[in-house]
Specification:
Blueprint: E1 2-8, E2 12-16, E3 21-25, E4 28-30, H1 33-40, E5 50-53, E6 56-60, H2 62-67, E7 71-72, H3 77-93, E8 102-109, H4 111-125, E9 128-134, E10 140-154, H5 157-164, H6 174-178, E11 180-186, E12 191-197, E13 200-209, H7 214-228, H8 238-243, E14 245-248, E15 251-254, H9 256-277, E16 286-290, H10 292-301, E17 309-311, H11 321-334
Parallel strand pairs: 1-8, 8-10, 11-16, 16-17
Antiparallel strand pairs: 1-2, 2-3, 4-6, 4-7, 5-6, 5-9, 9-10, 11-12, 12-13, 14-15
Helix pairs in contact: 3-4, 5-11, 7-9, 9-10
């Protein structure tokens, strides 16, 4: 029995087995075997991104972005769960799951989607899944991924468990166990707010809003469309925002000021939501700012949120905070 964790996000999908982690864009595309052979034989990295599930041959992640003619990417939660979550989850787990061996999986959902989609996500993942993995060296591998148990938790609790538990799943950081902790988890589609009072979940202090980092990306894409006449898919902005420039049809655009403005406006919106939601929770001891969007917005967001705000360490990839916490929680549940 192996304990694995997957954070199947709208922007990125992440997975962890306690030793290794991977991340790829949450994009699914149709596979073309000829393109696959030409594109991957020179080397695409150690992890496969080409699969066959049932009768469907697919690429996932950056390979789908660059090679697929038809690409699937959505911010609609119902469509995401119904059409993409299983494929992205299996792609994330495939490198870590041994053929036929039982896997116990911890994953998460945004707070406001949790009740509605928890059972559907569990049902779609908890099963025996027969897939074909096309490895980067050209070899085909038939594999059964047997997910015998799935535990779905509210997404921001991953970051809290990451701080609270050690790698054996044991309680380690007393502060996060004995105090009242707020969590702001800025993802791609949503921002999640939750409160854990001495590890007890607070329904009153927890919700999801549509203030994910995609709001800023939409603003940036809108300005770029006005200037260039080209509509840029949001997932093609990730690297451009990080670089601060983008080239469209031979013309280079400086994004620095545009990104700062979009991030500042989004941070103001999220801070207002947090301050309003937690107005009665004035006894929160500290607030954890997490998620890939949280790291991107930290400098704008921290001064605006009322209370002691703890940003995750700058030398850590904040996109993995939840998935590592999921794995630690799995160790706490099933690690013995």
């Amino acid at each position: 029995m192996r304990i694995l964790a997957a954070d199947i996000g709208f922007g990125y999908t992440k997975a962890c087995d306690g030793k290794q982690m991977q991340v790829f864009k949450s994009i699914v595309g149709e596979a073309n075997p000829v393109q696959f052979a030409e594109a991957l034989l020179p080397g695409q990295g150690p992890l496969p991104r080409h699969f066959q599930i049932g009768d469907e041959a697919i690429y996932v992640g950056e390979l789908a972005e660059t090679q697929s003619r038809g690409r699937g990417f959505t911010l609609d939660p119902a469509l995401f769960i119904a059409k993409y979550a299983k494929t992205l989850g299996l792609a994330a787990l495939a490198p870590y799951a041994e053929h036929g061996d039982p896997v116990r999986l911890v994953t998460g959902l945004p707070v406001s989607f949790f009740r509605k989609y928890k059972d559907a996500l569990t049902t779609t993942l908890q099963n025996r899944h027969v897939i074909t993995v096309f490895n980067p060296n050209g070899e085909r591998e038939e594999k059964t991924i047997y997910i015998e148990k799935v535990r779905v938790i509210p997404q921001p609790f991953g970051s809290l468990f990451n701080l609270m538990l050690n790698d054996q799943g044991k309680l380690a950081q007393q502060r996060f166990i004995s105090e009242k902790i707020g969590v702001i988890d800025v993802g791609f589609r949503t921002t999640d707010f939750t409160v854990a009072d001495k590890t007890r979940y607070s329904e009153r202090g927890s919700l999801s809003t549509d203030s994910g980092i995609s709001v800023a990306y939409n603003a940036i894409a809108g300005v770029l469309q006005e200037k260039s006449g080209t509509q840029i898919e949001l997932y093609r902005l990730y690297e451009a925002v990080a670089r601060g420039t983008i080239k469209i049809k031979g013309q280079r655009f400086d994004l620095t000021g545009l990104v700062q403005q979009a991030f500042s406006q989004l941070a103001s919106r999220i801070a207002a939501e947090a301050n309003r939601l937690w107005a009665d929770d004035w006894d929160i001891d500290c607030i954890i700012l997490t998620g890939g969007g949280g790291a991107a917005l930290a400098q704008h967001l921290q001064p605006l949120v009322q209370g002691e705000v703890l940003a995750m360490p700058a030398d850590q990839d904040a996109r993995f905070n939840n998935v590592v916490g999921y794995w630690k929680y799995g160790m706490n549940l099933w690690g013995g």
